[in-house]
Write a structure and sequence with these properties.
about 450 residues; alpha/beta; Helicase, Ruva Protein, domain 3; six-stranded parallel β-sheet; elongated; cell membrane
C-alpha cells in the first residue's frame, strides 16, 4: 500500500468511526428525550390519580401490614395497635391495627390507592411507550430539520445593502421598529435613548430631519427641551397654550432668576460654572476663582433674590466695595482689600462672564427644575437666541441646559421614566456645557434622548 492509498484509508476509517460516534450520540439524545417525556407524562398522570395525603396513609398502611405480619407471632392480633398523626383531626391518634386497615380501605384514600395500582398495572406501561414513541419521532424530525438548516447556504458575517423599504419591513417583522421615523425608516426600537447625532455641511438637510422629528415627539406626547439658535423651530412648533419660552430679550419669555433653581449648596456652583470660561488644561487662576466668587455672590443674595444688587456688586462696585462685599465668605482669602490688584482682575473676569445676567428681570419666579418635575406639564421648553443674540445669551443658555440635565439625572433610574428629548441644533454655536458629556453617557436610564446637530 503506497503512501497515498494509506492516507485515503486512514482518512476514510477516521471519518467512518466519527460518523458512528456521532450517530451513537444522536441516538442517545433521541432516547433521553423520549424517556424524559415518558417519565414526565407518568408523573403527571400519577398526580391526577392520587394526592400526597393518600400516599401518606398508604405508607402507614404498609407499615401496619408489616407490623401485623410480624406481631401475630408474638401477640394477639387485637393487641396490636398503631400510633399515627391524623391529617383530618390534626392530632396524634392510636388505633387498633385492624381498625386502621378497615378505615383505610373503606375511605377515599384507599379507593385512590386502588385506582393508582390499577393504572400502574393496566395503563402506565402502554401510555409510557406511546409517549416515548411520540418523543422519539418528534426528536428525529427536529434534529433532521436542524441538520438540513446547517447545510443551506447562508451568509456567515457581514452587512447587506438593502433599500430603506426593505429595512423598514425587516425591523417591523422582527418587532424592532421604533415609533420614531426618518424618511419612512423607523429607528431600532428603544434606540432613542442611545442619542442621535445629525451631521452634515450646510444645506444637507439637518434642520429638515429635526422638522420631521418634532411633530412625532408631539404626537406621542413626549416632553422636549429645544435649544433654538435660529428661531426656526420656535416659529413653527411653539404652542403658547402649553409651551414655555426662555429668552430674556423676548416679551413672551418666562421670567427666570438663578436662585429659582438653587435648592442645594452644589447648585450655586453648578450655575456659576456655566458662566465661567475656565479650562482645566489651561488652569487659569483668575477664571477659576471668578467661578468661585460668582458662586459665593449667588449665595449672598439668595434670600433677596435681587439680581440688580448682584449685578451692581460684581460689575459696578469699586475695588474696595467689591472686596468688602465678600468679607467673611469662603472667598475672602482671594478677594480682600489687601490684594486689590488680584481682586480687580477677578472682578474684571467675572464681570465679562455675567453680562447676560443684566437682561434678567427682577421678581422672576420660573424654575426649570420645577417645570421638569411637574407631572401636569405636557408642553415643551424652548430656549431661544437669534443669531444676533447668541454671543450675549450663550452663558445663560449653557446654564439652562445644565440645570435641565441635572433635573433629568435626579429622576429615579428604577422607574419607567418617560422620554425627555433634548434638541440641540447647531451644537458648535453654544458655549461649553460641562454636564453634557456625563448626560450622554448616563442619561439613558433616566429617559434622556439627546439629538444634536453639527
Amino acid at each position: 500500500m503506497n503512501f497515498q492509498n494509506q492516507g485515503n484509508f486512514t482518512r476514510g476509517s477516521q471519518l467512518f468511526a466519527h460518523k458512528l460516534r456521532m450517530f451513537g450520540q444522536g441516538s442517545t439524545n433521541v432516547f433521553i428525550i423520549g424517556l424524559g417525556l415518558s417519565i414526565f407524562w407518568i408523573i403527571c398522570r400519577l398526580y391526577q390519580k392520587v394526592c400526597l395525603s393518600s400516599l401518606y396513609y398508604f405508607a402507614i398502611e404498609r407499615y401496619v401490614q408489616l407490623k401485623l405480619a410480624i406481631g401475630e407471632h408474638f401477640y394477639d392480633i387485637d393487641q396490636i395497635g398503631i400510633k399515627f398523626y391524623s391529617l383530618r383531626f390534626k392530632k396524634w391518634m392510636h388505633l387498633n391495627a385492624q381498625d386502621f386497615l378497615h378505615e383505610f380501605y373503606t375511605s377515599q384514600h384507599g379507593f385512590k390507592i386502588q385506582q393508582l395500582l390499577e393504572f400502574l398495572i393496566n395503563s402506565a406501561l402502554l401510555e409510557g411507550l406511546i409517549v416515548f414513541a411520540i418523543g422519539v419521532i418528534i426528536s428525529i424530525v427536529f434534529f433532521t430539520a436542524q441538520g438540513k438548516k446547517t447545510i443551506i447556504k447562508a451568509k456567515i458575517r457581514g452587512a447587506d445593502f438593502v433599500g430603506y423599504k426593505c429595512l423598514a419591513k425587516m425591523l417591523k417583522s422582527a418587532k424592532k421598529a421604533s415609533k420614531i421615523r426618518f424618511g419612512g425608516l423607523p429607528l431600532v426600537k428603544n434606540s432613542e435613548r442611545l442619542h442621535i447625532l445629525i451631521t452634515g455641511t450646510t444645506g444637507t438637510g439637518k434642520t429638515n430631519m429635526l422638522n420631521e422629528l418634532l411633530p412625532q415627539i408631539r404626537l406621542h406626547k413626549d416632553r422636549a427641551i429645544i435649544v433654538d439658535t435660529t428661531g426656526a423651530f420656535t416659529d413653527r412648533f411653539f404652542d403658547p397654550k402649553c409651551d414655555k419660552l426662555l429668552n430674556p430679550l423676548e416679551k413672551n419669555s418666562e421670567q427666570w432668576l438663578p436662585w429659582n433653581d438653587c435648592f442645594e449648596a452644589a447648585d450655586f456652583h453648578d450655575i456659576a460654572s456655566s458662566f465661567s470660561n475656565y479650562t482645566p488644561k489651561l488652569d487659569d487662576f483668575f477664571a477659576k476663582n471668578a467661578e468661585l466668587v460668582l458662586s459665593e455672590a449667588l449665595k449672598l443674595y439668595k434670600d433677596d433674590k435681587d439680581i440688580i444688587k448682584l449685578i451692581h456688586t460684581i460689575i459696578y462696585s469699586d475695588n474696595r466695595q467689591f472686596a468688602k462685599a465678600f468679607r467673611n465668605t469662603a472667598v475672602s482669602g482671594i478677594i480682600s482689600e489687601s490684594a486689590l490688584e488680584t481682586s480687580a482682575r477677578i472682578q474684571s473676569t467675572l464681570g465679562k462672564n455675567i453680562t447676560s445676567l443684566q437682561y434678567l428681570k427682577p421678581g422672576g419666579s420660573f424654575s426649570i427644575k420645577e417645570w421638569f418635575s411637574n407631572s401636569n406639564e405636557t408642553g415643551w421648553l424652548f430656549i431661544t437666541a437669534n443669531p444676533n443674540q447668541r454671543a450675549t445669551l450663550c452663558p445663560l443658555i449653557s446654564a439652562w441646559i445644565s440645570i435641565a440635565i441635572k433635573a433629568l439625572m435626579c429622576r429615579n433610574p428604577n422607574h419607567d421614566n418617560k422620554n425627555m428629548w433634548f434638541i440641540l441644533d447647531e451644537l458648535p454655536a453654544l458655549q461649553k456645557v460641562s454636564s453634557l458629556p456625563v448626560a450622554l453617557a448616563e442619561s439613558r436610564k433616566y429617559g434622556g434622548c439627546f439629538v444634536a446637530g453639527l
